[in-house]
Amino acid sequence: MPFPSASDCSLQDPSAGGKNLLEEENFTFDRDRYRIIAEHPCYSENARHRFGRMHLAVAPKCNIQCNFCVRDFACVNENRPGVTMEILTPAEALEKVRQALSDYPFIKVIGVAGPGDPLANEETFEALRLVRQEFPNITFCMSTNGLMLPEKLPELVKLGVATLTVTINAVDPEIQGQICEYVNYHGKIYRGVEGARIQIKNQLDGIEAAVREGIVIKVNTVLVPGINDGHVVEIAKAVREREVYIMNIMSLIPQGAFAHIRAPTPEERQATQDACEPYVRQMRHCRQCRADAYGYIDQDMSQMSEERRNLIKIQIREDLEKAKETLNKNGKEES
């Protein structure tokens, strides 16, 4: 069953910090998907302080070249999409998941977000297969440019991917052709508008199919002043029609071929979010995470010292012991 739009649901919106949505009768919300949303720190602002996520950097290859994208596979200090300390093998990714879930039980989501496009890397699927075998109840998430989404969707469904982020920077090929230099589709390079037409069609068709399969969709849009800043509302309208759950408008990071373009101001980004809000929920707490980020959104442990991580582990153990003591005490009082 598709998700409601912002005007269709009478439940609290977990992405809006408890904001009540307008009421509409005769709607039944899928409770399992509500739980997934409520525990996903990117889909729910409330969850960001309670639950964590872990990105597995197993996907170095990409099948498109965006003009703002610069990938780095040995990056220590930068905190942005497309960078990681190292590329993991699927077996290494599984070992990291084991350790992270043991040390940090607040992590509820395992995702693949690059540093390339996950759907262009077979290692993505192998890593998730290994993790699923050992942790059958963990929530899987993935980010993609959507070029291969219609073809790869059956594999995502089989693996139990519950949430999916698709980056859509334009639904007009003339605009997308300025943002993306080329797409590599089935081994052939398509440039400018020609490549944009292929990508946009696959993105929108893939989202429609994913929603039918019950996958919860987030759309990321990079706000590029002077190129797509007057067009983002059209993206919001298009994804509303396809029952996208939430939209994340991200500020351009000036680099690569777009190094000469300024980043949007916070006021410009907020105004664009406000203009899109009537059509689709807006994520307003994004931190534009690394491809190897883990922990809380506001506390990326990939960027922490070992000492700091150890202090967090100690605090978690102490909190768990206190919780056990409270449960035992309450149990004795009831008996």
Structural class: alpha/beta
Q: Major sheet: order of its strands?
A: 10-9-8-5-4-3-1-11-12
Quaternary structure of the protein: single chain
- Give the beta-strand count: 12
Uncertain parts: 1-29
Taken from the alpha-carbon principal axes, the silhouette is globular
Annotated CATH homologous superfamily of the largest domain: Aldolase class I
The average pLDDT value, as a whole number, equals 84
Q: Supply the number of helical segments.
A: 9
Q: How much of the sequence is in beta strands?
A: 15-25%
What radius of gyration results from the CA coordinates? 20 Å
CATH topology of the largest domain: TIM Barrel
CATH architecture of the largest domain: Alpha-Beta Barrel
Count of distinct structural domains: 2
Query: What is the straight-line distance between the termini?
Result: 44 Å
Largest sheet: 9 strands, mixed
Family: Belongs to the radical SAM superfamily. NifB family.
Pathway: Cofactor biosynthesis; Fe-Mo cofactor biosynthesis
Pfam families: Radical_SAM
Protein name: FeMo cofactor biosynthesis protein NifB
